[in-house]
């Protein structure tokens, strides 16, 4: 069978662009070649932005970009450019603002029409191929824009100028220096806003679709920690419990899907994103530290082990995502359905588990003969079941008159059996590019998991990933790069790369106490300021001062599915400053928060991660130094004492007894030079603003001291 002809996207590395390499559309990647063609032929640009695990991107490709007649329209009348939003967030941010200004909403695939000088004049998201659902089809749209380009060019140029100017002015307005003082009351205002949005039946915030909103829960943990009102814990507990029980949580393999299409967390959008695994696991780890409840540690492990099994490169980096859609079977590789890899018929459950175990498993996980999807408008899950924890093992023990130990053992045996059966199915598409920013989040979580759970495999994974980034994703000038795939490193790093990866290295230092990582923290934190700081208005730009010049230079602080670069940068600078005894970094962290105080006051619910930075700034923030021999049992016990508690506003340093590492850490953090072992015993120093209490040699006394100044709310 002859191979299909390929367009120039076949030369790219982005999995998303490669998905379109066989389209009849004459696609270009973003770059001067496409811009020059548009200018020389006087054609508008059709800019299509998406990502490889985007369901509606797949739909639009199948319906429109593989359609020869639509391809002819594009090829004759437009210059078509395809962009992976995960590779080029700078392009995506700018043109998403344009689409939202024109249509009032945004999303992917994003479809934007530009003049040859890259100014947007019309845009939207998904368009069906023909007129449908009361909206114009893509064919109608292409013909209309071509006609207007021929007859109303002046009006189009004017519209592009006005929209570009509006985008630029909007960014400039947000950058106006407000000089508003930091207000400690914002954190409680945030909690009150979340309380008003809370779903007291199913947990989470608002109606469907419902997103995990991990950093919202993380900030609520900090509110509860300082203001021990049981209502704050109720918001945290109900949300984490219902999420863990729902279909959004992969009950067999671990990991979390993107979001729930319904209130009950039952029917998910099945893609798995690396950043979700990092952020969700982190908040379950913190809930475990705060409450001591093993169930939260178990959920975190399920996520982390899924990442190790399915999203980890042999070199140590972490892959970006797995698709929601997958083939229905190996005989029909191109016939894909959402969630096909994850869902089950009742007959399949009984066939693979047998009648007795099958009935028990079906009772616990809500299996029904005709399927159990509570929301299925397109009939995608007819006669199929999404596993949700409908009954606890104790309920099943009563229902089936079995000892609970037998129930638990049978359920675990069944889970392992079905997981093995599932492994024989065709897997969803894997986006195997490695992004520095998302890897930074995952490194942070694996390092934190080692601290909270004490499992060495998580530290090894964090260390291996960090070393991969440091060895493979820095250029000769020491600049972080954004994307690695198949041996190819491209795209100079963005703010998020520097902020998120530095966060990962901070947590990795506190996991390993390897001064090499703290040295990288120091270098990257100062580079972050040098490359991205806005000298006029404060805060950080998404792109570096020597990056490609686009029609606008954006600055973001809103914490969406991923926290903003400014939010993480603020926290990173504050904590790095505290670890390194570097007042200049702490000052920049404070100034970052001050640059956005007006926005925080206006709508605190939109900025939970930068509020975590504010919480760190407001303190009290502790510096804890453990001085001793690295391998001694007493030292390990002291370190474990510190790690057993939920202390989010804490910077932990280890001061070795002697050797090269002692010299390194004293040079990096001069403060600890005086915090040494006393009487040849492991010694702990608990300090606030570098003023230390009397040295402690006993882990029990250290526990009492930390607990007395670290009172959590009542669980």
UniProtKB/TrEMBL annotation:
Pfam families hit by this protein: Thioredox_DsbH
Gene3D superfamilies reported for this sequence: 1.50.10.10, Glutaredoxin
Alphabetical list of SUPFAM superfamilies matching this protein: Six-hairpin glycosidases, Thioredoxin-like
Single GO BP term: carbohydrate metabolic process
InterPro entries referenced in this protein's UniProt entry, alphabetically: 6-hairpin_glycosidase_sf (IPR008928), 6hp_glycosidase-like_sf (IPR012341), Ssp411 (IPR024705), Ssp411-like_TRX (IPR004879), Thioredoxin-like_sf (IPR036249)
Residue ranges constituting the Spermatogenesis-associated protein 20-like TRX domain according to the UniProt record: 6-167
UniProt-recorded name of the protein: Thioredoxin domain-containing protein
Source species: Candidatus Abzuiibacterium crystallinum
